[in-house]
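Issue 218. Parser rejects a valid record. Input:
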Amino acid sequence: MFTNLIESDSHRQEFKRRSSFFLATMAAYALILSGAGVASIYAYDAHLEAQSDDLVLLNWIPPVTPDRARPEPPRRAPASTNTSRAVSQPVRPVLYESPSNPTKAPDKISGDAQPIPPAPPNTKIGNYIADPVGPPRGATDCVTCGGNGGNGSGPTVNVDTGTPPPPVVVKPPSTLKVSQGVLTAKAISLPQPAYPSLAKQVHIQGPVTVQILVDEEGRVVSAQTMTGHPMLLAAAKEAALRARFTATKLSGQPVKVLGLITYNFVLQ
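Output the parser choked on:
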């Protein structure tokens, strides 16, 4: 036991010695690093005295020179228009084509209005502007000459305003809808429907309404059940298709008739 106490005391001293050495080493390293950082700050030379406020031009940009105003072309004074002189053909100081002609492009593009009117056909050059009073020679546009150069041999359109329009014929409707009473009054034959045996066994009775379409000769061409018990509909429709009626005429013309027939099924 005494031996163990001696060993524990020796280990405690060894730990203290090592801790002191470690702390001393760390303090020495910290001192060295701090001194090196301070020395590097003092040793750094930023060359502040060499800096200046002068600007360095890296790219050369040429100065912008304003466009010179182009001089306006001299405007030619319009030639005098002579309207009092009787001429046989047009006269122009300058001959040029109308700008509306698609086959002739203008010589130059300008926004100024041309003071001289376009030269029509057969125009001669002169120092004034003049046009004949009548149509120019060779003109074929004539309202009263029929469009054939003034010979009057063109086609003529005659408009007859004295003939009244034909009367409008109103056709009567092809199908006439009548009431049940009117349809029954026109009946020639109304066969009674056969009572279904199954409906008799379960004591089913009541009215069945059928809509029919009668053609111009009085025959039923179609039948459609409207109301009634489902077990009675087939018998009523079959009887309606066998019915016959007199022909119905409207304004003297035979027409189709649309109406209703009611069959009342009653158990005896």
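Fixed in the parser; the record now loads. The domain at 175-265 is CATH 3.30.2420.10 (TolA/TonB C-terminal domain).
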